[in-house]
Design goal:
Enzyme class: oxidoreductase
Strand content: 25-35%
Keywords: Oxidoreductase
CATH architecture of the largest domain: Alpha-Beta Complex
Helix content: 25-40%
Largest sheet: 7 strands, mixed
Number of strands: 19
Organism: Synaphobranchus kaupii
Structural class: alpha/beta
CATH class of the largest domain: Alpha Beta
CATH topology of the largest domain: Quinone Oxidoreductase, Chain A, domain 1
Family: Belongs to the zinc-containing alcohol dehydrogenase family. Quinone oxidoreductase subfamily.
Shape: globular
Number of helices: 12
GO molecular function: 15-oxoprostaglandin 13-reductase [NAD(P)+] activity; zinc ion binding
Radius of gyration: 24 Å
Number of domains: 3
Length: 405
């Protein structure tokens, strides 16, 4: 019977390939154990790490590395050519096909989430692609060719090593599934755990046509609420209507404060707020009795040195007390893993069935065209911060192809 040989030492386990005969004294100080060959082992992957010639996986790849702490993404991050990493025993090597862009990417490059993190470190939070290599323990659940998505560090690369226990199997490598990992999960968990939505309530979603706002609109409608959404163009206003928003407000052509005051004099029951600054102040003033303001971000300040735009918080205690209202913060990592699994399972099912719209902006309408390749991540970040994106900004990656010497 054909076998796979495991060469073991005190430090690591390596997979070597071959039959059950003719392998003697090949390496000193190793103990060879004969086990049945498993179909999940990828010959091209083994060839890659033993001999690059003829391999389907290149020896090197492109990735983005944070080399300087700064909220200026182009200043903080450099494009590097590095060896394709080797997965450990419980890891998968994923060839990234699409990676997601998040407003918080520049908070990460500025070191705002972890003061102990010093450059250099990898950038990017989420990716989707195929398994092209794996460790022995990881092979119990996955095989080469599986399509997976993940929420973790180092996504801005052509290949990423990801712990097998953290990935999410997906039906196919579609960028729509990628939108759920951070943006969809944030809206789902925040509204369910902190929004306490009830039928007939009025919900305001700021930046409603953006990556996470689009999901907040849809989940609020599923809860049978009246949904108001802010946006910056008539095109976005039209999109919001298609996903159920009852009252889109283009703040470039309408007075946001005036519309809310005149059309919703009773106030807003729930506000899903991601802009910050003056919009946060307006949201506080528009809360209804027992209203809930959920802060999921404050993108208007991320590009500043402090990361914040000033708010008028001096009278906040009085305003909350007078209305029995509350302000609640939401940071997705705090809800891992307890709520995350349910959120992904539910949203993946809804996306696959067509019940949930997952709008993707891959840059087709930009002057330079689609976001393709690691280099275009810089441009995708810029695009998002101009406020011109419609839906979740996503970059398509094409793995480096090495030419024969």
């Amino acid at each position: 019977m054909s076998t796979t040989l495991l060469a073991t030492s005190s430090r690591k386990v390596f997979i070597t390939l071959g039959g059950g005969r003719g392998v003697t004294n090949a390496v000193f100080r190793w103990r060879f154990v004969s086990v049945p060959r498993r179909s999940i082992i990828d010959l091209s992957y083994s060839t890659h790490f033993m001999d690059f010639k003829g391999s389907s996986i290149p020896s090197s790849m492109k990735k983005l590395v944070v080399t300087k702490l700064s909220q200026n993404f182009r200043e903080a991050v450099s494009l590097q050519i590095v060896p394709v990493p080797t997965p450990g025993d419980g890891d998968l090597l994923v060839r990234n096909r699409f990676v997601g862009i998040n407003a918080s990417d520049i908070n990460y490059t500025a070191g705002r989430y972890d003061a102990s993190l010093k450059p250099p470190f990898d950038a990017g939070f989420e990716g989707i692609g195929e398994v092209v290599g794996l460790g022995l323990s990881a092979s119990a659940r996955f095989t080469v060719g599986d399509t997976v998505a993940y929420f973790g560090g180092g996504a801005f690369a052509e290949y990423t090593v990801v712990p097998a226990k953290t990935v999410v199997p997906v039906p196919s490598v579609k960028p729509q599934f990628l939108t759920l990992l951070v943006s969809g999960a944030t809206a789902y968990i925040a509204l369910k755990r902190l929004g306490d939505l009830a039928e007939g309530e009025t919900v305001l979603v700021t930046a409603a046509a953006g990556g996470t706002g689009q999901f907040a609109v849809q989940f609020a409608k599923m809860a049978k609420c009246h949904v108001v959404g802010t946006c910056s163009s008539d095109e976005k206003s039209g999109f919001l209507k298609t996903i159920g928003c009852d009252r889109p407000i283009n703040y470039k052509s309408e007075d946001l404060a005036g519309v809310l005051r005149e059309e919703y004099p009773r106030g807003l029951d729930v506000i899903y707020e991601s802009v910050g600054g003056s919009v946060f102040d307006l949201a506080v003033n528009c809360l209804a009795q027992k209203g809930r303001l959920i802060v999921i971000g404050f993108i208007s300040g991320y590009q500043t040195a402090s990361g914040l735009q000033p708010v008028r918080a001096g009278t906040l205690p009085v305003k909350l007390l007078q209305r029995s209202a509350s302000v609640r913060g939401f940071f997705l990592p705090h809800f891992l893993p307890s709520d995350y699994g349910e959120a992904l399972a539910d949203t993946l099912r809804m996306c696959a069935s067509g019940k949930l719209v997952c709008e993707v902006d891959i840059g087709e309408m930009t002057p330079e065209g689609r976001f393709v390749g690691v280099e275009s991540i810089y441009r995708a970040i810029d695009h998002m911060y101009t406020g011109k994106n419609l839906g979740k900004v996503v970059v398509e990656l094409a793995a480096t192809v090495e030419s024969e010497p």
